[in-house]
Amino acid sequence: MGYCSECGIDLGPGAEACDSCGRPVDHEASPEGGYYRKEAVSKGLLRQDGRTYSVSAFAFAVLALVAFPPLFALVAVALGYMGYRRGDVQLGMAAIAVGIMFGIIGMLLGVMVWNL
Fold it and tell me: Strand (E) positions, 3-97?
């Protein structure tokens, strides 16, 4: 299984185009269609902006602990999903989970503070 040379998402077996960005698969680039991730990174074909979205998601998740938890948690989850879709799968999924957890914890802390 290869990776899309444009966005880095895993290509399914026999894929003719990337499901994420729609780029046609270059079957001559590698025998399994698309570049392998290592080749794509070394040739500068893989966009690296997925990591930026995922890291930003963690920053918004931390903000959700202290101020406006529903808003900042929602932004954290959205940014984590964008990071996931742009190739940073593991950190993107972790950012989504942390955004949800910190949003819930932030709301519980807010209730406890206001009820003192």
Answer: none
pTM passes above 0.85: no
**Rounded distance between C-alpha atoms, residue 31 and residue 39, angstroms:** 13
The residue extents of the domains of the chain are 1-47, 49-114
Q: How many Cβ atoms are within 10 Å of 5's Cβ, its own excluded?
A: 24
Per-residue pLDDT of the chain (116 residues; tens, 9 = 90+): 566 766 667 777 777 787 777 778 766 655 444 445 556 555 555 555 688 899 999 999 999 999 999 999 999 999 999 998 887 888 999 999 999 999 999 999 999 998 87
R_g of the chain, CA atoms, integer Å: 18
Distance CA(116)–CA(102), nearest Å, equals: 21
Pair 64, 31: CB distance under 8 Å: no
